[in-house]
From TrEMBL:
Consists of three domains, a large central CORE domain and two small peripheral domains, NMPbind and LID, which undergo movements during catalysis. The LID domain closes over the site of phosphoryl transfer upon ATP binding. Assembling and dissambling the active center during each catalytic cycle provides an effective means to prevent ATP hydrolysis. Its EC number is 2.7.4.3. It comes from Candidatus Aeolococcus gillhamiae. GO terms for cellular component: cytoplasm. Residues 30-59 are annotated as: NMP. Keywords: ATP-binding, Cytoplasm, Kinase, Nucleotide biosynthesis, Nucleotide-binding, Transferase. ATP binds at G10, S11, G12, K13, G14, T15, R127, A173. Pathway: Purine metabolism; AMP biosynthesis via salvage pathway; AMP from ADP: step 1/1. The keyword RNA-binding does not apply. This is Adenylate kinase. AMP binds at T31, R36, G57, L58, I59, G85, F86, P87, R88, Q92, R133, R144. It is found in: Cytoplasm. The gene is adk. It catalyses: AMP + ATP = 2 ADP. One of its GO terms (biological process) is AMP salvage.
């Protein structure tokens, strides 16, 4: 069973994915973190991704799809994963569906994190003081936001058209409250649609 955490930069997907991942023993697959690890390791992928991430742009769909296909093929991903940061474009969403169909898997639910833009800005500012992430600068944030609106927001329409289950999560609340609302959506357990 695949759970997708979807929302704008700073909406808290990563934070919630960590909590839910522990609770359900499911791998947290964060494409942003995977890319940051590649950058840290100085790999070929990392060298390609670094300047794009730093400017707040998106990595090519081709590369992202290859990365995810490889990750979802790992043994620990066979009973489901929490996908955080992917898909981020409609072509990525489409490729993911095809990939899952080939392997007899399905998306159980898309959790859409709803947070007002003012709050997002504040969170990114605060995070930039703590984490020193290269893309938390004001300039990169503007670009990430633009990419989100142009390329990522349409992903929700894609899932609506496909009839995929989408649940709206009020992300403008304390961390524990957001976790509670996700657990309520799950009814204490992960939605049982799909094989794995
Ligand atoms: P955010 O906190 O902005 O949601 P992430 O940690 O998920 O950030 O991702 C950081 C950066 O990694 C993105 O701004 C983008 O450059 C790159 N990235 C992550 N996932 C994808 C993806 N699915 N497609 C393209 N680029 C991606």
């Amino acid at each position: 069973m695949i759970t997708i955490l979807f929302g704008p930069p700073g909406s808290g997907k990563g934070t919630q994915a960590q909590v839910i991942s522990k609770r359900f023993g499911l791998p947290h697959v964060s494409t942003g973190q995977m890319l940051r690890d590649e950058v840290g390791a100085g790999s070929e992928v990392g060298r390609e991704a670094e300047p794009i991430m730093k400017s707040g742009g998106l990595i090519s769909d081709d590369l992202m799809v290859r990365i995810i296909e490889h990750r979802l093929g790992q043994p620990d991903a066979q009973h489901g994963v929490l996908l955080d940061g992917f898909p981020r474009t409609v072509p990525q969403a489409h490729e993911l569906d095809e990939m899952l169909e080939r392997t007899g898997r399905e998306i159980g639910v898309v959790l859409f994190f709803d947070v007002p833009e003012e709050e997002l800005k504040k969170r990114i500012e605060r995070r930039s003081e703590i984490d020193h992430r290269a893309d938390d600068t004001p300039e990169a944030y503007v670009q990430r936001r633009r990419e989100y609106e142009e390329k990522s927001a349409p992903v929700i329409g894609y899932y609506e058209d496909r009839g995929t289950r989408i649940e709206y999560v009020n992300g403008n609340a304390p961390i524990d409250t957001v976790t509670e609302s996700i657990l309520t959506i799950f009814g204490g357990q992960l939605p049982a649609r799909g094989v794995a």
